[in-house]
Amino acid sequence: MRHSSPTLATEPERVSISIQEARDLVLSTIETLGPETVGLRDAVGRVLAEEIRADRQIPPADNSAMDGFALRAGDAAEPPTRLRVVEVIAAGARSDRKLGPGEAARILTGAPIPEGADAVVMQEATRVEGDEVHVLEPVTAGDHIRRAGSDVSPGLLVAEPGRVLRPADVGMVSSLGRTQLSVVARPRVAILATGDELVEPDRLEEDGRIVSSNSYGLQAAVIEAGAEPVLLGIARDEPDVIARSFERALHCDLVISTGGVSVGDRDWIKRVLADLGGDMRLWRVRMKPGAPVAFVTLAGRPVFGLPGNPVSTLVTFEQLVRPALLRMMGRREIFRPVERVRLADAYRKPAGRAHYVRVTLERAHGSHDRSRVARVCQDQSSGVLLSMVRADALVFVPEEVTEIEAGSEVPAILIGSSDLCAEPGH
Ligand code: AMP
Ligand code: MG
């Protein structure tokens, strides 16, 4: 394969775009994946791809809601009443005996109501003497009976496609006698690191090398988003090597590379993707950290060329890749929640790029103000991963804003939260 010479003049000229435009552009190309079948063990958190309708009633038969005695309410309308205990019905047992007048059956919670009985009196309202039970309180027909079908009746719509399955859903599906269900597939996400300086974490003994922490940070971020990472290792800064890696990545649903996406002599990503026939949809987003970020569609797949600096990598993943993954998984809510917070310190920046400022959040003590206070993490440089470790949130400062006074209310994107919103919120 031939590659154009790595000079600035041959860079694909793209007008830079705002983060909102970039996100809209990315999302406009993303489609929800097809369905797959999973067992109950793997269903939680997945997006349902079928309609779940009850094909039976729950509970299947009238049963007792209490430990007590099944009886005919007419026998015990005016306490005290003495009834003969003629049998014991445990949970899971069946009674073949019809209860006659003046008779009671000892019954345990969940056990079927015997024929002839129309109420249960709870144990605490009785006294047992020999083979007799004294009913001390008045009983009304229907007392403490869970009716067949009172929970779910046949034909009831239990859950609709698009629902994110919670533990109760999984329990309900199993109670309908099902062991499998159809959910939206999880994207397989190829993760490719590029850079001559990079090594795997267990090869750090070689001098002057840097661990490809992006591989593992992204792997974790993909897992946290609910998708399936496929690590493709580290490619050297050689166009043919990078091209082969991208070709290998195409068995996945989405591809992420890191590094080599800027304007340096050995920044090959954009040129390699163009030579492979990729359609460059965007490059350069007016955001910091993370300005050089490429989005290409290659063989029908979304490919993200994220920057190499570890903070830029994770912030661009958060803003562009994560919503795309969640959309592929059929999620309707695809954005992190945003909280209004008070900025403890003033913040200044030039106009032109939106900033995602790493902050810690804390409650203000002794103040009536209920909003949390955001403190800007000390080092905001894009290479300092520790600032991302410390950060609870990213404060969004729009492109045109140049100064925020201390004490101002600002939107903070809660990067540690598993909750999601339908709108980006900033
Ligand atoms: P690049 O965008 O390739 O110029 O990389 C920018 C910076 O990010 C350089 O200091 C790289 O060493 C660093 N970097 C690139 N890729 C990775 C990676 N996979 N893990 C950690 N740091 C990286
Ligand atoms: Mg590099």
How would you describe this structure in keywords?
426 residues, alpha/beta, Molybdenum Cofactor Biosythetic Enzyme, Chain A, Molybdopterin biosynthesis moea protein, domain 2, Molybdopterin biosynthesis moeA protein, domain 3, 4 domains, six-stranded mixed β-sheet, 7 helices, 18% helix, disordered N terminus, binds adenosine monophosphate, binds magnesium ion
Question: Can you walk me through this structure?
Answer:
The chain has helices at 19-28, 167-175, 213-225, 239-249, 269-275, 310-328, 385-390; strands spanning 35-39, 52-53, 63-64, 68-71, 81-89, 103-107, 119-122, 126-129, 132-135, 145-146, 157-159, 180-184, 188-194, 198-199, 210-211, 228-235, 254-258, 279-283, 287-288, 294-298, 301-306, 338-343, 347-348, 354-362, 373-376, 393-397, 403-404, 409-414. It folds into four domains: 8-33 and 186-328, Molybdenum Cofactor Biosythetic Enzyme, Chain A; 36-58 and 151-184, Molybdopterin biosynthesis moea protein, domain 2 (Alpha-Beta Complex), CATH 3.90.105.10; 63-146, Molybdopterin biosynthesis moea protein, domain 3 (Molybdopterin biosynthesis moeA protein, domain 3, Beta Complex); 338-413, MoeA, C-terminal, domain IV (Beta-clip, Beta Barrel), CATH 2.40.340. With 426 residues, the protein is an alpha/beta fold. Helix 4 (239-249) crosses helix 5. A hairpin with a 2-residue loop joins strand 20 (294-298) and strand 21 (301-306). It contains seven helices and 28 strands. Residues 193, 195, 197-198, 210, 212-215, 258-260, 262, 264, 307-310, 383 line the site of adenosine monophosphate.
